UniProtKB/TrEMBL annotation:
SUPFAM superfamilies: GHMP Kinase, C-terminal domain, Ribosomal protein S5 domain 2-like. Performs the first committed step in the biosynthesis of isoprene-containing compounds such as sterols and terpenoids. Belongs to the diphosphomevalonate decarboxylase family. This is Diphosphomevalonate decarboxylase. Residues 218-308, 316-401 form the Mvd1 C-terminal domain. Keywords: ATP-binding, Lipid biosynthesis, Lipid metabolism, Lyase, Nucleotide-binding, Steroid biosynthesis, Steroid metabolism, Sterol biosynthesis, Sterol metabolism. InterPro entries: GHMP_kinase_C_sf (IPR036554), Mev_decarb (IPR005935), Mev_diP_decarb (IPR029765), MVD-like_N (IPR053859), Mvd1_C (IPR041431), Ribosomal_Su5_D2-typ_SF (IPR020568), Ribsml_uS5_D2-typ_fold_subgr (IPR014721). GO terms for cellular component: cytosol. It is an enzyme of class 4 (lyase). The keyword NAD does not apply. It catalyses: (R)-5-diphosphomevalonate + ATP = isopentenyl diphosphate + ADP + phosphate + CO2. Residues 23-204 form the Diphosphomevalonate decarboxylase-like N-terminal domain. Its EC number is 4.1.1.33.
Length: 445
């Protein structure tokens, strides 16, 4: 055990702590389905973009002390059970790799073999909605999704002085939550599905670092921050069991898309990147619909709000999801080449990617025109994150938004087929019932 100069009683008093912050990531080629539930091995590879941690990240502190009698964890201030297999796998893997730790100043010396008998207390906070389909569990189980269990493994690693390469760490994180393994790197990351039964080749690798495609701007429309009804883990299990589309997707479609996406990223080819991103998000949600019973992640919000009796709100939220996709699709179609990409994880929140600040300004103007802040909300609590684009777009107050006119080009896009949809949006705008926040992030982590 740890040895302190003042004897056994004193030695019970020490506490060692370490804190780490981890970003979330958003998949542009989605991971959906496991071939091994325990080791968390996917049925296909995936590619993601790691987000700037100041806006979407999990911060985890781990403490270890001989006075702790069991492992405990608090998530966003609330104690949660650590008995789940994933948390246990992570802690076991980390303890297995732990090494001697010496803190001479405080007289602490922990031998390798001592770690088995020591307990940890873990406290983690997400600076964004938990389990709402935003983090790919990556930042929190990622963080979002879970991406978050990765935190549990990362922190203790630091604390236990684990001398592992990042690839090893990514394998530990993966066993917490699949998407979490991609959050160990910035920039663009690929999680290779691997073929080995023990999962040793199912690891994340960085495709391009955070400076490779700096012009990209990511804007997240938070339609709903409530916890979704079907977790990603349950949802993908049901898809594997029942969806034949998933089999086709994982065996035929994704392998091809991974190659095309890697190429698009290397060449900074935004049109190809956008086409692949939108198509893959749409196919992922089609797989969810092809699951029995079907999973409606994009509609989840409406079900919850009906239960909570926010009926009007839910109707418009329900509408928005399709409207955001419609808005982007029409814009892209009108320009003849993709201007903006959209992607949705297992939830209704839209992740929109613009190729540069100029397009991002236009996108923000359009979004705010169609979905202005509700009357009781000020602009600075409606648009969060790096708001410099807001300033560049000349949007300083509610008045500036009210003065926005639909851009000329958008007017021209109003051919008869889309009139109905646009007038629904305008109706929503007039009613001011649409409430959601925009998070603008301009730098990839
Ligand atoms: N900071 C965190 N530390 C540890 N575990 C976390 C953390 N944040 C979230 N989790 C775990 O992840 C679960 C949420 O995962 P889930 O996959 O359902 O949602 P998500 O990650 O927000 O969405 P998605 O994976 O679709 O992006 C939580 O219930 C919790 O168990
Ligand atoms: C839709 C997704 O966000 C699914 C993420 O799933 P999780 O990583 O949360 O699942 P588990 O491995 O069961 O924890 C797509 C993605 O991030 O690739």
């Amino acid at each position: 055990m740890a040895h302190k100069k003042n004897g056994e009683k004193e030695s019970k008093k020490w506490v060692l702590m370490a804190t780490a912050r981890s970003p979330t990531n958003i998949a542009v080629i989605k991971y959906w389905g496991k071939r091994d539930e325990t080791l968390i091995l996917p049925v296909n590879g995936s590619i993601s973009v790691t987000l700037e941690p100041s806006h979407l990240s999990a911060t985890t502190t781990v403490a270890v002390s001989p006075s702790f009698d069991r492992d405990r964890m608090w998530l966003n201030g609330k104690e949660i059970l650590l008995s789940g297999g994933r948390y246990q796998s992570c802690l076991r893997e980390i303890r297995r790799r732990a090494e001697d730790v010496k803190d001479e100043e405080r007289g602490i010396c922990i031998k390798r073999e001592d770690w088995e008998g020591l307990h940890v207390h873990i406290a983690s906070f997400n600076n964004f909605p938990t389990a709402a389909g935003l983090a790919s569990s990556a930042a929190g189980f990622a963080c979002l999704g879970n991406v978050t269990l990765f935190m549990c493994s990362f922190c203790p690693c630091k604390l236990m002085n684990v001398k592992e390469e990042t690839t090893e760490l990514s394998s530990i994180a993966r066993q917490g939550s699949g998407s979490a393994c991609r959050s160990l790197y910035g920039g663009f990351v690929k999680w290779a599905m691997g073929n080995k039964e023990d999962g040793s080749d199912s690891i994340a690798v960085q495709l391009a670092n955070e400076t490779h495609w700096e012009d990209l701007v990511i804007l997240i429309a938070v339609v709903c921050s409530r916890q979704k009804e079907t977790s990603s883990t349950t949802g993908m299990r049901e898809s594997v069991e029942t969806s034949s589309l998933l089999q086709y997707r994982s065996q035929v479609v994704v392998p091809r898309r991974l190659i095309q996406m890697e190429e698009a990223i290397q060449k900074r080819d935004f049109p190809s990147f956008a086409k692949l991103t939108c198509a893959d998000s749409n196919q992922f949600h089609s797989v969810c619909l092809d699951t029995s019973p079907p999973i409606f992640y994009m509609n989840d919000t409406s079900h919850r709000h009906v239960q909570l009796c926010f009926l009007i709100y839910c109707i418009y939220v329900h509408g928005e999801i399709r409207l955001i996709i419609g808005l982007v699709e029409r814009w892209n179609q009108f320009e003849g080449t993709p201007q903006v990409a959209y992607t949705y994880d297992a939830g209704p929140n839209a992740v929109l990617i613009a190729p540069n600040r100029k397009v991002a300004r236009l996108l923000l103007q359009r979004m705010l025109f169609y979905f202005p802040p509700p009357s009781e909300k000020e602009l600075d609590s409606y648009v969060l994150g790096d708001t410099s684009i807001l300033q560049e777009a000349g949007l300083h107050s509610r008045k500036d938004i009210e003065a926005l006119l639909p851009q000329q080009k958008l007017k021209q896009m109003l051919h008869p087929k889309s009139i109905l949809e646009i007038s629904t949006i305008l109706y929503a705008r007039d009613q001011a019932v649409v409430q959601f926040c925009l998070v603008v992030m301009i730098k990839l982590c």
